[in-house]
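Raw record, unedited: Propionate 3-nitronate monooxygenase
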Amino acid sequence: MFTSPLIAAPMAGGSTTTSLALAAQGAGAFVFAAGGYKTAEQLAAQIAPLRATGIDFGVNLFVPRNTALASGQAAALRRYAAMLGPTAERYGAVVPEVSLAWANPQGQDYWDEKVALLLAEPVPVVSFTFGLAPSRVVSALHNVGTRVVASVTSVAEALAAAQSGADALVVQHANAGGHTAAFLAGGEVYQGTLVDLITEVRAAVSLPLVGAGGISNARAAKEVLRAGAVAVAVGTALLRTDESGARAVHKDALADPRFTSTEVTRAFTGKPARALVNDFVRSYSATAPNAYPEVHFLTASLRAGAAATNDPQALNLWAGTGWKSAQEGPAAAVVRTLLAEL
């Protein structure tokens, strides 16, 4: 399924640009277009150059929540919006009115439109994160020749994904930067290493596995491959490259010695995600509600205001635990170095 042992992970929100995907693909990595937060039209524009190369690639979609917030979560969301006011004012931003219209196209991340696009104009691989695609969607994608990949964080999720008809799994460890792919409620954070997790999932399912989360060098990648993965995915390792669409202040923070640790937080989006620890993480992690994507929309203008002033202290500085190894320069050079060492 994958044409390379190295995968350039899809980083939504602008980090995975068309230029980054093409550079990584040209250097020998298997790449994914990041479909999260894009309309169908925007996704189609990112797919077209990848399709034109004639090389297999994938598209990643967010699986949206299919229920309204519980009353307790909705109340917590309103309290959180009120708490954000002073910080937003500091950056000349306004916290929007709390909206619980989760079922609108934006709240559903334009799911229906993007699935329709991928059925009308099939791509080689489609991966899903934040949940499992409905069986009817998996069947429809199979019918147009597309292979389906599910993102999982535990053996239980891997078993559920295999039952759903997935052709392969991305096994994401908690060391990964950005959002967790976890979708089963009540699961505890995995305490072993990525190698341990791959080994356990390998024993439970027979699907091809991709290891992801905190892989910052070839040595770590080799260990994951030896444990039974067919490929490894890297994201943070590409964030500082020339073609990355990450904000300059984000790229600079990854190399700034003032930032000494990462933490999983809901403060920015309402969904657990690993980021460099900054003032916003310290101030709001304890009170941020479990409400994605509502919190994402609440903090959007605040984050934009912080970016406009080049202040990293209120930005979502997504980073895996291996962030210190992220290098500047052409993405192709990073990919070629990793592949050569593999």
